[in-house]
């Protein structure tokens, strides 16, 4: 079993939940943020000391939801502060970006870290398309083309040009090229069965998060495994990652209490400001190609908002409690889902940073030693056979 | 604009050809399936006069005595240029036609100005790829979007005969033309190599060989195209090839307003 420590880098002092996305940036205090960045980066680096196998972050725009509009910058700092942990970019919002730039920055990180990079090729959440003024209808086709282009940029031995639907380049030969061969591990989001199948067709790792139940997580994973077999490969646990809100404290009660506060801020403040922009994209575009997937996304958000922590614990969709409790929860998730990676998100909303640090130390001392051996998870190796 | 059918009276015999468009001349050499007059030709013809000879023996035409190898076919093609076009011209060759275009560029360098190789045959080390597949499977390998095939007045049997028999008359099914490989370094034309991201007939090793051997060559992927690039992605093909034909090596430099995403 392997673990990654994920950080959204939220702005945890936001008080104007009635605001709309994009949130006006007079609420952002750059002086305070300097301290916050330092704290967050130190916390992430500390995860390596506490036994996490990887440290992850991702990209968001224009709101207090997360302070990383380019997570690769944070990745570069983590590369310098760590020795062996995977640097997990979960990930770049590939359809919104220049794919050659993504290929280059990821390659730099891979080389700087001596091959510790895990990459994420994410489509993003709906309203991010407003931020960079791209048509959400094109999100899937842009992701598809950009993914193929980036893989070519990583693996093509000769300079090459690209004449595509969205991207045209006359001559590409990136320096540096990646150290991991044929290329660094790629993770794609498995928010629903459609995207899980897409990840399988790309021979990417599957990353699932915010599942409404373990049973739904199982359905998504089954779709991924099924599609992988159709296209001729067999994923192992090393290709499966699930993200959990995670809160570990001395007692179950203390953990629940802390998580309640953090989740409340997360749902009612950080998520709340996105609601209108998100709805416009969902209702007026084909970001989701099927109504089923759109409805699933909306229902998942609603359920996350209305569900109590106790219900979430019961359903196995959070890790929360004293170390012994969390060990049981991890074992349950692994048994039901067969995942090799668990991605723990511990800085949820405005949960106090001291609580996060304490939880990390409890993980180091009591959780990690109990669960690390549940499932022997090899390194994920990528294959080009699906090209 | 319409394709006009003509006959070239050459020393070795008659060669049928089509011509379309106005502008600087471009010679188009077809693949092993014969001449498929495509949307790409029509689009290119807006700025170019495209000459599309039918290789003797293909599409129901007569094989010419003494024209029984790729070099001899290149000689005939040079005669065609001299007779119908003039001193020299830009040359586009698809698959079998790309192979032929290489021989033309090697043996008749003054006849070839810019050279465009579109998934060229003849450079398949170890026999990788190729056309030897059952018809249904081959159809899938040739085009990712068969529904985009233009209307074609040729019969299925005629096209099959082109692929199964006529091409062998010229190269005996040789997967790798080793003699030509040793001479690719003689090609002096600026060369554009185009290759579909879904290509399965011509292996990627072909591109490696050509990149290594031809001194001034630019390698470009056409996204979401299989072997018949012009069928799958005619607009992308013409956008790229048209730029190269218009600006030569300066096609590397973007001269359009706007930006990449």
CATH superfamily of chain B: Alpha/Beta hydrolase fold, catalytic domain
What value does the average pLDDT of chain A take?
Answer: 93
Order of helices and strands of chain B: EEEHEHEHEHHHEHEHH
Largest sheet of chain A, described in full?
8 strands, parallel, barrel
Question: Helix tally of chain B?
Answer: 9
Number of helices of chain A: 13
Helix content of chain B: 25-40%
Structure characterization notes:
The complex is a heterodimer of chains A (387) and B (261). Chain A is of the alpha/beta class and 387 residues long. Chain A has helices at 30-49, 71-81, 99-112, 128-131, 139-155, 193-201, 214-230, 252-270, 275-284, 291-306, 309-315, 323-337, 353-371, and strands at 2-6, 54-57, 86-93, 117-122, 160-163, 168-172, 186-189, 205-209, 240-248, 318-321, 341-345. An eight-stranded parallel beta barrel of chain A has the order 1-2-3-4-7-8-9-11, surrounded by eight helices. A two-stranded antiparallel ribbon of chain A has the order 5-6. The radius of gyration of chain A is 20 Å and the shape is globular. The mean pLDDT of chain A is 93. Chain B has one domain: 3-Layer(aba) Sandwich (Rossmann fold), CATH 3.40.50.1820. In chain B, 35% of the residues lie in helices and 20% in strands. Chain B has nine helices and eight strands. Chain B has helices at 39-44, 70-85, 96-107, 135-142, 156-171, 178-183, 204-213, 229-232, 234-247, and strands at residues 4-10, 13-20, 24-29, 48-53, 89-94, 112-118, 191-196, 217-222. Chains A and B meet through helix 5, strand 5 and strand 6 of A and helix 7, strand 8 and helix 9 of B. Strand 5 (160-163) of chain A pairs parallel with strand 8 of chain B.
